[in-house]
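Hi support team,

I've been running sequence recovery on a batch of backbones for a student project. Most finish fine, but this one hangs at about 90% for roughly twenty minutes before it completes. I'm not sure whether the input is malformed or the queue is just slow. I've pasted the structure tokens below so you can try to reproduce it. Let me know if you need the job ID as well.

Thanks,
M.K.
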């Protein structure tokens, strides 16, 4: 342990701890614009400068390791003046109008300038080169607002392992973006939005659908249905100063109804539908492998996360056949809304507009994929992120905290607790196993409160195995099989897992989530998402699951009804047409 003194406070930290981390341990906040937790320090922004006794110059606390007996001062005049000068220089070349910026009142640079008492910028400098890139469905880049902090570079290269963004050039002429100043649509960007989630300013944001959604709500000829993903209910409250992990499901439904949506449904219904189809697909692949001795393309990969699908298409196209053919719950819901729901309610599908509220920017891309129109209409018309919904609620003048709790509409609003946990890494796998195990054995999954503990938590790659014993006659070929599963979250971890599979590790089913923590850490969630916040959101989702009497997808009465009335059974001809799709290899250029 290293013992040091920060602002007169004694603190002991493990060897290798930085001054930034040491200060945080005792509640001393040091500002930073470039730091990404749990990643090697960059020291790029110089905002975290502190004074160390007997040191010749100020040091970057994010990069300086603590040493024995060190005396550190974080708020001397020398420190304050240096930070102020750094921020003024950033502001002098920042090409943005705060009054109309998407990040106004949610901007770390703006907040830092306010905290430092900057009321005018002393320096008049050349503005940064302006490049506005709206080439992708999910993201917008505005290089004029970029402060070159390199957070986006860190997350894109070191966490997601995608490599779409890089620093180029030197000094004032340096820029952050794809090579050769190209647009994002010309490189292998998976549109996960993690760059937008960590950007401290408005240089990268989601491609907003707010105005388009208001337009269809205001159109009396359209019936506007909204679906909300499970991760939203554990994060939306943060837009209204609730503690992370506060469940606001009922207030969210009330807000959506006040905004003017005709019906408020739950994507969880479609998540239950996904489990029925995906679980049945897994069983068919196992039967092909064990009984038919056919090529079954195992392990089966989950297909709920569109950023992951993009990643696979770009970087591992040889494994596309392992991907489940199931659409994501978002897209299944849209297909069902414009077929089953339209028929059941005597509505012309062309008059239905489906809006999704998702924690993910890549869902915007997924919605406009050419494969997503099996009902004869675009499955999902518009996608709002959690942040966008927060803005719409404020635009509508709704006092969110004062809202009563309301219930989702039927018949597409009832869901199981298994669907809720789709929001968490490991949740899709756990939900699938709850159903598959019971279908095969006729018995409930023998797990603690139905939870598979090895699949929970934030470890980057998680594995588990479950021996199947005592099968029902239809699935007797699975007797004694040890079902092996794996879970990864964050595409960097996924690359490691895929390499392990290539090297010979055997699994039957693999769940992949694009973002760290799963959907609760999605690129469209309230900023800034740390592991502490991820854990709080995940805990809320598990509470939602555990608080329901209905916790298995195959027991959802509305799911049973839609099969009885419309789909007949999982993997039927009708379900194959509406609920399944295929994907293709991609080239980055």
């Amino acid at each position: 342990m290293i013992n040091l003194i920060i602002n007169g406070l004694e603190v002991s930290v493990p060897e290798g701890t930085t001054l930034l981390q040491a200060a945080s341990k005792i509640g001393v906040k040091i500002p930073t614009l470039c730091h990404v937790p749990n990643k090697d320090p960059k020291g790029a922004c110089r905002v975290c400068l502190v004074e160390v006794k007997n040191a010749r110059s100020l040091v970057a606390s994010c990069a300086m390791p603590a040493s024995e007996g060190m005396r550190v001062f974080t708020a001397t005049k020398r420190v304050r003046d240096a930070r102020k000068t750094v921020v003024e220089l950033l502001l002098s070349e920042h090409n943005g109008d705060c009054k109309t910026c998407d990040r106004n009142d949610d901007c770390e640079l703006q907040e830092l300038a306010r905290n430092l008492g900057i009321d005018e910028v002393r320096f008049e400098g050349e503005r940064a080169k302006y490049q506005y890139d709206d080439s992708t469905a999910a993201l917008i880049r505005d290089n004029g607002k970029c402060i070159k902090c390199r957070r986006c570079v860190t997350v894109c290269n070191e966490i997601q392992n995608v490599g779409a963004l890089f620093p180029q050039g030197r000094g004032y002429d340096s820029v952050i973006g794809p090579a050769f100043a190209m647009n994002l649509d010309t490189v292998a960007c998976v549109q996960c939005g993690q760059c937008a989630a960590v950007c401290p300013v408005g240089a990268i944001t989601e491609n907003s659908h707010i105005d388009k959604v208001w337009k269809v709500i205001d159109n009396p000829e359209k019936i506007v249905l909204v679906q909300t993903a499970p991760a939203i209910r554990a994060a939306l409250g943060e837009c209204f100063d609730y503690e992370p992990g506060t469940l606001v499901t009922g207030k969210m439904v009330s807000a959506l109804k006040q905004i003017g949506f005709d019906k408020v449904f739950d994507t969880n219904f479609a998540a239950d539908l996904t489990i029925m189809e995906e679980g049945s697909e897994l069983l068919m692949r196992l039967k092909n492998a064990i009984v038919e001795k056919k090529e079954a393309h195992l392990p089966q990969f989950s297909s709920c996360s569109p950023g992951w699908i993009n990643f696979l298409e770009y970087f591992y196209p040889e494994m596309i056949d392992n991907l489940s053919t199931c659409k994501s719950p978002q897209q299944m819901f849209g297909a069902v809304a414009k077929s089953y729901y339209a028929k059941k309610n005597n509505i012309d599908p062309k008059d239905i507009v489906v809006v999704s509220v998702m924690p993910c920017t890549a869902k915007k891309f997924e919605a406009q994929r050419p494969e997503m129109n099996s009902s004869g209409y675009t499955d999902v018309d518009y996608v709002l992120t959690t942040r966008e919904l927060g803005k719409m609620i404020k635009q509508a003048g709704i006092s969110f905290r004062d809202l009563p709790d309301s219930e989702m509409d039927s018949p597409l609003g009832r869901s199981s607790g298994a669907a809720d946990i789709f929001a968490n890494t490991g949740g899709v796998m756990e939900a699938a196993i709850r159903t598959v195990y019971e279908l095969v054995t006729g018995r409930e999954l023998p797990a603690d409160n139905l939870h598979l503990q090895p699949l929970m938590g934030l470890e980057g790659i998680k594995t588990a195995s479950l021996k199947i014993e005592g099968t029902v006659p239809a699935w007797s070929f699975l007797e004694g099989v040890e079902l092996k599963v794996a879970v990864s979250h964050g595409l960097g971890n996924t690359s490691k897992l895929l390499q392990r599979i290539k090297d010979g590790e055997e699994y039957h089913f693999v769940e992949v989530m694009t973002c760290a923590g799963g959907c609760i850490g999605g690129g469209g969630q309230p900023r800034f998402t740390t592991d502490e916040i991820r854990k709080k959101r995940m805990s809320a989702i598990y509470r939602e699951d555990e608080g329901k009497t209905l916790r298995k997808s195959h027991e959802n009465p509305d799911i049973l009804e839609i099969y009885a009335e419309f789909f007949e059974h999982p993997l039927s001809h009708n379900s194959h047409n509406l609920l399944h799709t295929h994907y293709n290899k991609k080239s980055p250029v």
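--
Follow-up from support: It reproduced on our side and the slowdown came from queue contention, not your input. The mean pLDDT is 95. No action needed from you.
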